[in-house]
Amino acid sequence: MSEGWNLTADSPLLPFADRDSGRARFAVAPVEPSGPEVGRQVDGLLAGAAEVDITPPPGIPKAGYSRNAHTGTGFRSRIRARVLHLRSGSTSLAVVQCDLLGGSAVLHHLVARAVAERTDVPLAGLMIGATHTHGGPGQFLGTPFYNRFASNKAGFDSAWAQQLAERIADGVVEAVETRCPARLAVGSTEVWGLTRNRSLGPHVRNLSVDDARTGPQRAYVAVNPHLHLVRVDTAAEDGGYEPLAATVVFSVHGTGVPMQSHEYNADLWAYLVDELATQITRTHGQRPVVGAIEGTHADVAPALHPGTAGHLEAQRVGRAIGSEAAALYERLEKELSDRVELAAGLREVDLTRSRSIGSITLPKRPAVGAALIAGAYENETPVVRRIPPFKAGSPKPRGRGPQGVKWVVGGPFQRFVLPLSGFPRVVPVQVLRLGHAVLVGLPFELTVETGRRIAAAVDDQAGDRGVDQVIVTSVANEYAGYCATPEEYGLQHYEGGHTLYGPQSQPFFASQVARLAEETLRTGGMSDVLAERRFDLPHHRYLPRPGGPEVERELLGPATFTDATARSDPYWEQRWRDMSPGNLQWHDPLVRLEATDGDGDGAEWQRAVTADGRTVDDQGCDVEVVHLGKDRYATRWWNPAFRSYRRHRFVLVANGTRPKLTGDPFD
Predict the structure, then answer these.
(1) Co-location of 565 and 507 in the same domain
(2) Separation CA 53–CA 73 (nearest Å)
(3) Which among 302, 322, 452, 465 has the fewest CB atoms less than 10 Å away?
(4) Is the peptide bond before 389 cis (omega within 30 degrees of 0)?
């Protein structure tokens, strides 16, 4: 190994964490876990769960809307990672659910490395999944291409990636160290009317799609309605069981909040998770760790009312899906069991060495299609979206070669602008067994029909091994663009143009997943990963540094009220003066609301609660915190649904070295 590439046990997770520019070059070799419980046979099921806040300071570019996005100025809903840990027999798993655009090979390997000495979770048993919110921070991915083009600014930020990896690793360790006897159930329900197929033309070209249904209903038939839920209860002190965790897998793009938004947010997933957690708490008296990961969503968008994208619509759709999940959660109580067979399989498919499986061969070089430039439906690039060959549905006539009908942007000259090394070249494929269910993780955004074909391929291999549910997830462990079926690819909408490895991508990766599933289910565990992963990423630091002039924390005037509009709910706002963003702990609480019915100095103040029982603070979905520039900040209480209190006030909680401040009452 070349000098300067090696990460030793004494190294920080990432080198060059303090560099402002240049390149981050490092290599990571898989490390076998050496925690105290490695190799011990467990009779029954153990489980643990943890939630960690990964909200960054303002200044990180947002990922998902590409150049149309904005750099984050604060948060409207927090960005979190939730960990579900399971242990049975000799298998140890950790499913991490992040409010991010996708997983990351950098995070996958660094988190596995960071937890190796304290846990029994191997790389093959660690899944870094994501909600695919388009309101989360970027610049942590494992490929130059997506660190450059997924966000409004380019570059891998090693300081930010290291912070992410450390916090996620802390969550995994906490989940493992708090595990105890548990019961698990996996089930599914159908959710209709809240999602729509945004690329219907390509979808109905699939030979496997039933064309018997026509008319307006087609838009709903073309979605993946299956909401999957993993419920885990853990042993309670009274000898019974109580809620520990719930993991949702559902297929919908995180695009309820439009690209004009400047604040970090988990989009409709924030409301989905909050609704599910709140309903469980009301019923069972305890709030579990609730998280979510993306299903097969590439051509599925939230069914927003026309022209109303924003938090109101994201809330409507998200809470409605969350209610369906809550009903499923209750139905699963009768199916909970502590006899759960676990297995983990991971293969890193190195496309620089092998591009064939069976009779299927992928192109040597990936390519970006013209349809990608025009953007996806509902978030299209102005003007360009109307011009062929960028316009959706403009395939190349008589398309030949490995990329078929795709118009390659720049033609043969693309290779000079986008070098081969910048694309995803190592593709992680993962299979986790959870009792009678198999959870499949791929790094692509998978279309509805791609997901169905992958599930069918796994089902064919499951045979009589006791598996009756296959759950396919997107954007796991890395982000590698899209994967459309050959038929969908042939029409060259956004999904086909963004399928980097050509028209045979879906059959190729369906075959890879099927092979891994067979090996994993047969042997109980499979790890086929590279001896070393090397990363060479253009680097730029966006994470703000501590420092700057000493500023006294002070409130700036009384709270003010802004009334609702047709597209926005009303809000109260409190402004204040404080140190620069790098001096605040953004992953810790910053603001809460207090309320009272009393008058004068003797009034008894308590935490504010909305009419439906939710605490009003920056841990929920309605309290925003933003940096206005220099030493100015604002917090906003959106949709201020008062309970019975007469008066309210903002409270800036103590944060790091900054003192608590209490605002003037308002009513």
Answers:
(1) no
(2) 17
(3) 465
(4) yes
Instruction: Copy the structure tokens of residue 86.
Output: 């399971």
pLDDT tens digit sequence for 262-293: 999 999 999 999 999 999 999 999 999 999 99
Cα 91 to Cα 612: distance, rounded to the nearest angstrom: 41
pTM for the full predicted model: 0.95
pLDDT tens string 427-479: 999 999 999 999 999 999 999 999 999 999 999 998 789 999 999 999 999 99
Question: Are 139 and 240 found together in one domain?
Answer: yes
> Which residues share a beta bridge with 636?
573, 624
531 with 565, same domain? no
Q: Is residue 379 scored above 80 in pLDDT? A: no
E-assigned strand segments in 254-302: 289-294, 300-302
Q: Is residue 406 part of a domain?
A: no
Whether 530 and 558 map to the same domain: the answer is: no
Is 18 contained in some domain? no
Handedness of CA 491, 494, 496, 501 (dihedral sign): positive
Average pLDDT over residues 98-126: 97
Please check whether residues 534 and 558 belong to one and the same domain. no
3-state secondary structure of 451: helix
pLDDT tens figures, 340-378? 999 999 999 999 999 999 999 999 999 999 999 888 877
- Separation between Cα atoms, residue 665 and residue 308, nearest integer Å: 33
How many other C-beta atoms are found inside a 10 Å radius of the C-beta of residue 569?
A: 17
C-alpha 205/C-alpha 490 separation (Å) is 9
Mark whether 444 and 567 lie in a shared domain.
no
Comparing C-alpha atoms, which of 76, 82, 87 is closest to residue 432?
Answer: 87
- Please state the three-class secondary structure of 360-372 as a single string: EECCCCCCCEHHH
- What integer pLDDT is reported at residue 7 of this predicted model? 43
Domain boundary (479, 511, 538) is at 538
Total domains, the chain:
2
Q: In what order do the strands lie in the sheet with 525-528?
A: 469-473, 437-441, 426-434, 342-350, 525-528
Residue 378 lies in a domain: no
pLDDT exceeds cutoff 90 at 238 = no
Residues in the chain: 667
Q: Does residue 138 lie in a domain region?
A: yes
| Domain edge (last residue) among 509, 538, 567 | 538
- Using alpha carbons, select from 109, 89, 88, 46 the residue that is nearest to residue 426: 109
Question: To the nearest 5 percent, what fractions of the chain are helix, strand and coil?
Answer: 25, 30, 45
Burial of 67-100, coded b for 16+ CB within 10 Å and e otherwise, reads ebbbbbbbbbbbbbbbbbbbbbbbbbbbbbbbbb
User: Both 314 and 252 in a single domain?
Assistant: yes
For residues 74-80, average pLDDT: 98
pLDDT in tens, 528-546: 999 999 999 999 999 999 9
Give the domain range for residue 593.
554-662
Lowest mean pLDDT among 76-80, 276-280, 636-640: 636-640
- Please tell me what DSSP assigns to residue 544: P
Nearest to residue 271, comparing CAs of 607, 612, 586, 573? 612
Query: Are 157 and 306 contained in the same domain?
Result: yes
